Structures are given as structure tokens and as C-alpha cells.
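Record type: monomer structure entry
Structure origin: computed from sequence
Chain ID: A
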Amino acid sequence: MQQSLFSSSLCFRLAFLVAPALLAQSGPMPPPPLMLFVREEVKPGHGAAHSVTESAWTRTLIKGKSTDHYLGMNALTGASEAWFIMGYASFADWEAKQNEFDKNPALKHEIEKISQQDGDHLTGTRTFLGALRKDLSYGPPVEIGKMRYMRVRTFRIKQGQGGAFEEGVKTALAAYEKSHYAASFAFYEVAAGTGSPTFVVLRPLKSLAELDGMADAEKAFQGALGEEGRKGMQKVFAETVNAVENQLFAFNPKLSYPGPGVVASDPGFWTVKPPKEGAK
């Protein structure tokens, strides 16, 4: 990630659905109250080189004994991007991670050097903070260490229409429950970093094969809504939503600095072997 993310606030790149304080445990965990997203635009053809600098970043964090963990993922659809997601238990927890980094000048110096190399592979970055909307989320907690993909939906809402949009989502949630929709997703409302009101919805997936059953699940969902419910939802979303962006990502261990609990869920996937001596 680029060093510019550190320039005004050290929070922007030390670092998922699990707050770092809880990452020592494996197993299903609820999504954290706060989620920091770092969105990097990777130059075409620079994916492999970008992974190399990110791996160096991770090794430096391990050496510096950072406790601020994150997961990285590559876009399978849309623009050439890498996203990094970091969960926090509270604003105080977020601040503590900033202070931890600030008190380790050696780590900061190494990160600054690597970030300059990382910047050679990027065309831009954006960082934004999301607050969990538990009332708009759905499904049981997941074991994020066993997930391999993430579906991300971004809703950009018309000004003054946030409340109406939320009511539409709650109508959908009732239909999901009624149809026994087999999925879990976490709803985050963007608090800072991009246009507002914006909502980011994260749906982790063990396999892309889970999407093969979406047609049947959608049919059951529509049936649970009923004709009046479908008409009402269509009207609400037409009146409240400016745009919707759908993306698919694959988790990449080389872009990640996972906590012990995530690694424990699947060591074979998350443990990245260090490069051979002399290798760049």
C-alpha cells in the first residue's frame, strides 16, 4: 500500500470480519463494529509485482510484532484493484493501533521504504471507514479463515433518502428470513472517506460454486416477498438508490497479515512461505 495513506493518519495501512482483539480465536465470529477499507488501483500487468511488495510489508509487520491485522483480496471483476479490510472493536481500538505504530519508529521507517516501492505499482488509492449496521445485516457469523472469496455490493443513496432505503432493506431481510436464504452478509454504513450516504455489503464465500444456487434462492426470496412486497421494494429502491456496484474478490494470503485465529482456521492457505535467500 502507498505511504500516502500514513501521511495524515497512521491508521491507514497497518492492519475482517473479526476485530483484531478477538483474532486469537478461530471459529465463527461476528463482524466487527468498525471496518477500515483500503482500495488500491493496481496498474495493469503489475499484479505479481504488487504482491511481492505487499509480502515484504507483511514480513516487516511480523518482525515489528504488530498486532494490527488485515486481509487482502484481488478483484476478479471490474477494474484492476486490491482491497484491504481491517476490523476494529471500537474507535478506541482503532486509535490504540495508531499509537502502537507511532511508538515503533523502526517499523515505521521500514514501512515507508516499502510503500515507496508499492506506489510504483499503483495508479491511486482510497481509504474509507464503515460502521456496522447490525440491524441491516443477515445470517449467522462465519469463520472468515475458511472463506476464499468476497462479494462486495456498494449502494450509493440519494441525499435525504437514507431512512427510506433502510426500510426497504428491512423488508428484504424479513423475506430472507421467511425464505431461509442460505447466506451471511454484513452491512456497513460509510462514516468517512467517500460520498455519503453509502452502504457497503460484504458477503463472504467458501467457493464461487455457492453462487450457482442464487437463481433458486432468488426465486424463493421473491416468493416470500409476494407481489405487493416486490412492487413496494422496487418502488423504494428506484426512489432511493443512485447507483449499485457489484464486485467479486478472491482473498490473497500474499496481500494479507492475518491474525492467529484466521491462520488457525486454515494454516495451509494463510501461511505464506518466505522467499528463498537471495530472491527478490
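Annotation 1: The helical segments are 4-7, 47-63, 91-102, 105-119, 162-179, 214-240, 260-265, 267-270.
Annotation 2: Strands lie at 34-42, 71-75, 81-88, 122-132, 149-157, 186-192, 198-205, 241-251.
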